[in-house]
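A reminder before we start the practical. When you read a complex entry, don't treat the lines as separate problems. The point of joint prediction is that each chain is placed relative to the others, so the output describes one connected object in space. Small molecules and nucleic acid strands, if listed, are placed in the same frame. In the example below there are two entries. Take a minute to note the order of the lines before looking further.
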Amino acid sequence: MGGKAKSRKKRIGGVVAGCVVVFALAFVLAFSLASLTGCSSSDNSQGGNGNTTTAAQTNSGSSETREFTDSAGRTVEIPTNIERIAPSGYTAQQVLLTIAPDKMVGLASELTDDQVKIFGDEFKDKPVFGAFLGAKDTFNREAVASADPQIIIDTGEKKDGIADDLDNLQNQTGIPCVFIETTLSDYGDAYRTLGDLLGEQDRGNEIGDYLQGAYDQTTSVMQTIPQDQRARVAYMVGDQGTNAIAQGSYQGQVIDMVANNVVTAEKVSGKGDGNQISMEQMANWNPDYIIFQDQSVYDSAQTDPAWLTISGMQKGQDYVCPSVPWCWLNSPPTVNQMLGVQWLPRVLYPDHFSDSIQDVTRTYFKTMYNYDLSDDELNDILQHALPADQE
Amino acid sequence: MDQHNEEHKSGFSESSGSEAVLVSSHAKHANVIIAGLAVLVVVIMFVSLALGRFSIPPDQAVKMILNNIVPINQTWTDQQAALFFNVRLPRVLMALLVGCCLSVAGAAYQGTFQNPLVAPDILGASQGAAFGAAVAILMHFSDWGISINAFCWSLFTVFLVLVISAHARGNHITVVVLAGVMVSSLFSAGVSYAKLVADPNDELAEITYWLMGSVTGASMSGIANVFPIMLVGSIILFVVRWRINILTMGDDEAATMGVNARKIRLLIIIAATLVTAASVCVTGMIGWVGLVIPHLCRMLVGADYRKLIPASMLMGSGFLLLVDDIARLATAQEIPIGILTAFVGAPFFLFLITRKKRA
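Here is the predicted structure of the whole assembly.
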C-alpha cells in the first residue's frame, strides 16, 4: 500500500513536471512566434504607452469633436483635429499610406523590405495590430487602444453587416471607427472624403483628382476600342499558376475593364481565389495575352511544353503583373489597382497612349507615395511587364 | 489501460476492507487536488484580468467593477472602462467557460465511448459548426448570426449521426463513432467548398480564423446567450458523472447493475453536445483542450468520474485562460488560440504516450 502511494506520488510528480515542461515549451513557442511577427515593434508600443496616453489627454483636452457620416451611413462623433490614425486592415493600410502616412500609429501587416524603402524606415518600428474582419480575426483591440489612435479607419467594398461590425469595434475599443467605401471607378470621391475626415483636404483633392484623371483616361481610350476588338487575356494566379481569375469576378475588375477575359467559368467560383483551370481548357480558350501573377510561374511556363502551345506564349505576349509595392491587378483589390488600370491598357494597346508605362509608373509613385523611382528600381518593378518593343 | 483497470478494481471493491482505506485516501487526495485547482483557476482569473496590452491599473479595474454596485467617483477614463468591460472581462469569462465545457465534454465522451482518443468533436459537433459558420460568413451574417447558424448546424450534425447510428447494425459504440467520423468528413468537405468560393480578402480569412478558433469576439451579451446552455449541459454531466463510471465497464456490466447504458449514453451525448456546440459556436474550433485536459486530470485524480468531471472542468478553464493570455499578450497581433492549444497539446500528448511506455 505504501508502495502504491509512493508510486502515485511519483506519478503525480511526473505529471506536474510534465506540465511545467509543456508550459515552458508553449511560452518558448509563443515568443518565437512573437519574434517572427515583429516582437520588437510590440515592445515599442508598450514602452511608449505612458507617453502616448498623456499626449492624448492633452490632445483631447483642447480638441473639439464633430459629427461625421461614413459610407456605411453611420454617424460617428470624431475629433475635429485628427493626428493619430489606425488602419482596420490590409486595404485601409494601403489607402492610409498614400494620404496620411505620418499620422499612422501602426500597421495591419508588416511591410516588406521593398515597401519600407518606399514608405520610410519609421514603418519598421510601428506596431502591427493585425486585420479586423468581424468576430474572428487577428486585430488586437487592446494593442490598438494602447497605441492610442484618435480614429480607426476601414476602407474597401461595402458589405452587409459592416455597420454592425464597426459599431461593435467602436464599443469595444472606445475609439471612433469609420468606413470609407472605395470603388475602382470612384477613388476620387473616396480620397476627397478621406481628406475631409483627416483635415488633409489639399492632399485628398490632389490624389483624388489624379486618380480620377487616370481612370477617365483609360475609360476614354477604351471607348474607342469595341468590345470584340479587345485583347483576349488570361490572368493566372496561385503558386502553380493553375488558377485563373474569371470574368465578372471582383478580383478581375481591371481586366474586365480593358480586355476580354477568356476565362469564363460557368460557375464563377466567383470572388474566389481563382478557378482551377486545366491546360486542356486553356488550350481551348487559347488567349493571345497571358499575365502571370507570380514571377516563378512565368519562368517555369517559358519551358513548359503545354504552355508553349498557347497563342500568347508563341507571340511572346506573356507578362508578369508587377507587385511593388503591392500587386497591381488585385490581391488585395484596393487603390493599388489604379496602377493596373494604367499599366494593363498600355501593354495591350500601346498605340492608343502617348505616354509610356515608365512615365505613368513614375507619376503614380511620385503622386501617391511622394517617392522618386530611380531607373534601376523602375526596371526591377517592370521586369517582364513591358511590351517587347519597349523593353 | 493498466491504470484504467486498476481504478475499475478499486471502484468495484469499495466495500471490501483492505482496499477501502486506499480508496478513501485516493478520494481525499483527489479532493485536495480539486480544491487546489479551484484556487489556481481563481488566481489565474484575477491575474488575467490585470494583464493586457492596454494599461488598466488593477485598482481602477476593481473600482470600475464596484461602480456597478455602488456609484464611485470616476477615476478611470471612459476608454479604460470600454476596453475592460467590452474586451478584457468578456474574454476572460468566455475562456473560462469554453475551457470548462470543452474539457468536461471531452472527459464525458472518453468515458462514454470507452476510448481515450475521443475529443468533443467526435460526433461532428465542431465540423458541423464550422460548416454553419462558413455558410453564415459567406452570407455576411452578423457575428451573432454566425454563432446561431454554427450552433444549429452543430446540433443538426450530431442529430444526424445519432439517427444514422440508430439504423446501423453492429456494436453500437463503434457505429456511433464511425458515423461521427463519416459525417464530420462530409461537413469538412462542405467547409472546403465554402473556402473555395469565398472572397480571399475577407471571407476566406474570416473562415480560416474561425477554423483556428479564438476568443477575440467575446462580448457580455454573447456570454449571456450561451451561458444558460453551457450551464444546463454541465449540470447534467456533473449530476450523472458516477454513471459514466458504470458505462466504462461496458453495456452488459451496466445492465447487471440495473443501468440502461443506451439511455444514459444518449443523455450524456446530448449534454456533452450542447456544451460543445455552445462553445464552438462562439469561439470557433479550439482543438486539443477536450482531448488532453481529461487525460491530465485522470493522471492527477484517477479515473473515477466523480472526481474526474469537476477536475476537468477546473483544469480546462484554467488552461484555456492561460493559453488565451498568451494569444492576446505575446504580440500586438492576436494569435489564434487554436494554434496555441495545438502547440501545447501535441507535445503533451507525445509526453503522455512515452511516459506510459516507461511505466
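Discuss with your neighbour: Chain A touches chain B through 75 residues (CB under 8 Å). What might explain this?
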